[in-house]
Amino acid sequence: MHGLKPSRRFLLCAACFAVLLLFACHSGSSAAPATPPPSTDTVAPSVPGGLTSPSHSANQVQLAWTASTDNVGVTGYKVYRGVALLGQASGTAYTDTGLQASTTYSYQVCATDAAGNDSAKSPALSVTTSAPPPPGSGHTYYVDPSGDDANDGSAAHPFRTLQHAADVVTQVAVAGGLTVKVGNITSARVSGPETVIVRAGSYAGFQLNWDTPVAGSASAPITFQADPGAVITSRNGKTADGIDLEPGSAYVTISGFTIINGGTISRAGIRVCNSDHVSLLDNVSGNHGTWGIFTSHADNLLIQGNETYGSVLQHGIYVSNACVNPTVRANRSHDNAGCGLHFNGDSSQDDATFVNWNTGLITGALVENNTLFNNGTAGGSAINMDGVQNATVRNNLLYNNHASGIAMFRIDGAQGPKNNAIYHNTIDMAANGRWAIRLDQLAGTVTLRNNILYHRNSGRGGIDFTAAADVALTDSDYNLFGGGGPAVTPDDATGLTLAQWQAQGKDAHSLTGTLPALFINGSGASGADYHLAPGSPAIDKGQTLPSVTQDLEGKARPAGTASDIGVYEYGT
């Protein structure tokens, strides 16, 4: 009893006394009848009446109804949208939020009592949300090292910090009263374009959505645009990243920043989580503790024109966890300990509250026109794909990478590769590298066409399969093999020359070539030039593909009688 407050001690003692008194009264009178249990309540409340919508907007509906009656007492109400239980209310009103504009929704309500009896549902009420308001004029803010966060953010009176500019955008979104669903997250949505122009100078990083999720739209995006010379050298105030977009971002663009680790960015230069239509354009992100660019559950992602390098622990660009339709285009990723580009569906990180993020798969990826070199000293392919399906990998130049070139497999993903296409890539492996292409645990067809696969390691080769089942699911032809190792290892062990492989009915139109004959300068060093040499055996030897009409530099394919093999088209 020590430590109890006096009032609590008195109540406990009084309760004990009552129990003792009850025991004394009943001791020795075993014939006393037991008190019968109360009868079970089986009567349901009456049906709620008068369901109506006092008001609604573009993204929410208010509901109200008249109270039900019950023989014991109504304890609350269940609100349904369509056939699904939407929520519960203790009173006779409810507000449904995060809705789509100009959309009709159907609602019903039933009453419940303490015994768990539910009334019948009320007659359905249909409500159509309002049309979205016209886009606002939006705002443009400026940030300058000579500015002051007490300023109004105009060109003449800029803010000082990136974080303050991000906070102002958040305040504008909240004040507008609009919301939008981003996956399973309700975000405040800006009504007009919000743009932050960052002038040259040195800055700390920033984060968006830490306390309040904020989103743009196709007609009213949020843009952070850096002028040349705008450099982030230290982490933001919340996470170990330079720029961090927390869950709920949509139609946000990060463009033109240089993010160089000055000693405090132990995670990513740019990090994006649980988002839709985020674009990372023309940024430079280097020497960070873990990743140059990291994303998680990022639907309709665009990573284009960036340079990532020097990631100490892992990858240049890492697209992680289940998502749909990421595009990774025209980036340079080099000198990273791990992969140049890593994709991982990782079913252990699935989010059961939203269908796109609950598959353990990355689907619909487009990976094109990237240049990746000198990656993988700690392991990890130049392009690594775990649990990736319905992907296209085309026109990528890979050289001097130290693990594999392109690897498709299943370790963390829910399933293996399926319906993937590997077209028109040039892969020149380092002397200590592994296979140009490695395929493992396929779940469906993978198609290889018009790739140059050069391997300098005599113990490794052009294409490696883990098992016969992977060979059976691969459609490979019109490729060019070169180097000192085997062209193909069909079982992860037995090396075959191209002639031996073709004798099994594989790669019927594929051929071989040497470095001097293939390229202007295939040295694998910094001055390498992988344009095709005059008379190259790759010229006009590919299969012309309707889905690949340009080369790495945007030149038309084919320039001759058929498409050239590799990333470059000769003579255009």
From TrEMBL:
One of its GO terms (biological process) is polysaccharide catabolic process. It holds the Pfam family fn3. GO terms for molecular function: hydrolase activity, acting on glycosyl bonds. PROSITE patterns: FN3, PROKAR_LIPOPROTEIN. Residues 47-132 form the Fibronectin type-III domain. Gene3D superfamilies: Immunoglobulins, Single-stranded right-handed beta-helix, Pectin lyase-like. Residues 30-55, 116-156 are annotated as: Disordered. Keywords: Carbohydrate metabolism, Glycosidase, Hydrolase, Polysaccharide degradation, Signal. Residues 1-31 form the signal peptide. InterPro entries: Beta_helix, Choice_anch_Q_dom, FN3_dom, FN3_sf, Ig-like_fold, PbH1, Pectin_lyas_fold, Pectin_lyase_fold/virulence. This is Right-handed parallel beta-helix repeat-containing protein. It comes from Candidatus Geothrix skivensis. The lineage of its organism: Bacteria, Pseudomonadati, Acidobacteriota, Holophagae, Holophagales.
